[in-house]
Design a protein that fits this description.
heterodimer, A: 295 residues, mainly alpha, MetI-like fold, 0% strand, B: 262 residues, alpha/beta, 6-stranded mixed beta sheet
Chain lengths: 295, 262
């Protein structure tokens, strides 16, 4: 693995003519790989020393080596007829990933839109605040696991309860974060808006919203991780296809390799989604320097 | 005599914080500010001079008395009474030119027109090549000039400043004072500047209003009878400085005694 390190001699942009931005990207990729490699290496070493049981904690090379067989678990058609599929397995994996991602994105999007709206209403409408804020504070600490049966009672089995569970996990936190962020907009920004004659509506769209946008993005990113965590629980009951369904099957059949393989997939997906959000964030929050405000 | 630009009659302010004792910030404060006059509010910290500024701006309500601008009671904020804070408080998500045009865009001035106005004003405050910069790319002094430009774009009748140069270093401060006299002469607005710096008061003011310690009242009003610019080595400048130092020392002592008592 090579990490681009700038030596003292090549001050003139090096032989590769990399821009500083490119350098930063490469260096960040390098460090990510190193971080991952270190963890995997440690695991492998523990296995090689015989300190861990490969049946319970199979090291990476083991759960990656048997890829063909592992992938068949994702292939619903093949599983149904009991054959060992080839190309169908990969399609199966992608389908599974697609369904789980769909539930994460839907739940998160609904949770974010409604959460920010309710947060803004709590801030602006006194009666709404008095009625709703205590409820939000009481419901916020309830674990998504407790909502799981509720989701099934109300929505039956299928996609909707899974999306609901993701939604309910992120919703309260986003409401509370929005209320706090609106409250912490610098007073002088609001004074400037009032002096210039801005209406409440103008002040919200043109001052408050841009002022809280950086922290809203941060809230969204943190809740993205929460959404990925809870979607596995949601999918462990009553959905046909999904990564959660795979892990719960793997647990039932004591298939450690499949458990770890799925964990790798979820980790990679979560990382990728966060990376994508960060890119959007950099574009939208043009005024914030990279390296500030969590960008 | 012409009608004053601002007229304060027996203005008082009592804060009633939740669950704590009332604080009387300002008591029976009366003052007239003439059109185009440069008035400095000088006083120890906590004497209510900033509070008074916010009440003139319409951002705070009085608990007694009347504030009138051009004979009309002040009930809400207006761009005719611009206010500049210690921090420039520019919006970081707008460019400098967009910040200056913010008030115009709120008042639905067409984009082309407000761009012209903003750029003209920015040129006049010496920020002609900063239109598309982000606020955090500017130095503190430049940011404060951009904040002045934002207020001036609304053609205010009264321009108020709440310790606008307190966060700047000494050299920048001196430059900013020259700059302020320049825009004062160009804009013909009345200026009220709040400061606790005696030198700033003497260098800038037509009249200095000295505040008592809390509750703030008019201790005395001193016209500065010196031609501008006012170099600090002038002997009469020193006389003014000694006089203000003495006036303030009394009030600072009182403020300290009160703080220690309560």
């Amino acid at each position: 693995m090579s990490i681009p390190v700038r030596s003292r001699e090549d001050t003139s942009a090096s032989a590769l003519h990399l821009s500083p931005r490119m350098r930063r990207t490469l260096s960040s990729i390098g460090w990510s790989l190193l971080s991952l490699g270190l963890f995997a290496g440690l695991w492998e070493a523990l296995w090689a020393l015989g300190w861990i049981n490969p049946l319970l904690l199979p090291p990476p090379h083991m759960f990656f080596s048997d890829l063909g067989r592992t992938l068949t678990f994702f292939d619903h058609e093949a599983r149904r007829i009991g054959s060992h599929g080839g190309a169908g397995a990969l399609v199966g994996l992608l389908t599974t990933i697609g369904w789980t991602s769909f539930r994460v994105v839907s739940g998160l999007a609904i949770g974010f839109a409604l959460g920010v709206t309710v947060g803004a209403l709590i801030h602006y409408v006194r009666i709404f605040r008095n009625l709703v804020q205590p409820l939000v504070l009481m419901l916020a600490p309830i674990s998504p696991v407790a909502w799981l049966p509720v989701a099934i009672f109300v929505f039956g089995v299928g996609d909707v309860p899974a999306i609901f569970l993701v939604f309910i996990t992120v919703f309260f936190m986003i409401v509370l974060a929005t209320v706090a962020q609106i409250g912490s907009v610098p007073k002088n920004y609001l004074h400037v808006a009032r002096i210039m004659g801005a209406t409440e509506r103008q002040t919200f769209w043109r001052v408050i919203l841009p002022a809280i946008l950086p922290s809203l993005f941060m809230t969204l990113r943190l809740n993205l991780f929460a959404a990925w965590m809870v979607v596995l629980i949601a999918e462990s009951v009553g959905v046909g296809i999904g990564l959660g369904q795979i892990t719960s099957m793997a647990r039932a059949t004591f298939n450690a390799k499949l458990v770890f393989f799925t964990m790798v997939i979820v980790g990679a997906l979560g990382f990728t989604f966060d990376w994508a959000l960060r890119k959007v964030q950099q574009k939208m929050l043009w005024w914030i320097q990279p390296g500030q405000g969590g960008i | 005599m012409a009608r004053p630009a601002l007229s304060l009659r027996n203005v008082s302010k009592v804060w009633t914080p939740e669950g704590r004792a009332q604080v009387e910030a300002l008591r029976d404060f009366s003052l007239d500010v003439e059109p185009g006059e440069f008035v400095v509010f000088l006083g120890p910290s906590g004497c209510g001079k900033s509070t008074l500024l916010y009440m003139i701006a319409g951002l705070e309500e009085t608990t007694g008395g009347v504030i009138e601008q051009d004979g009309v009671p002040v009930t809400e904020p207006s761009a005719e009474r611009g206010l500049i804070f210690q921090e420039a408080s520019l919006f970081p998500w707008l460019t400098i030119a967009e910040n200056v045009a913010f008030g115009l865009s709120i008042q639905n001035v067409p984009p082309q027109k407000r761009k012209e106005i903003a750029e003209d004003i920015l040129r006049s405050v010496g920020l002609g090549d900063m239109f598309d910069k982000k606020p955090d790319e500017l130095s503190g002094g430049m940011r404060q000039r951009a904040a002045c430009a934002r207020a001036l774009a609304m053609r205010p009748k009264v321009l108020m400043m709440d310790e606008p140069f307190a966060a700047l270093d000494v050299q920048t401060r001196a430059k900013m004072q020259d700059f302020l006299l320049q825009i004062w002469q160009d804009s013909k607005a009345s200026i009220i500047l709040v400061t606790h710096s005696i030198d700033e008061a003497i260098s800038l003011a037509d009249r200095v209003v000295v505040f008592t310690a809390r509750p703030g009242r008019v201790k005395t009003i001193v016209p500065i009878d010196l031609p501008r610019p006012r170099p600090a080595r002038d002997s009469r400048y020193h006389e003014y400085r000694d006089m203000f130092a003495e006036l303030l020392a009394d009030e600072v002592d009182r403020a300290f005694a009160e703080q220690e008592a309560g």
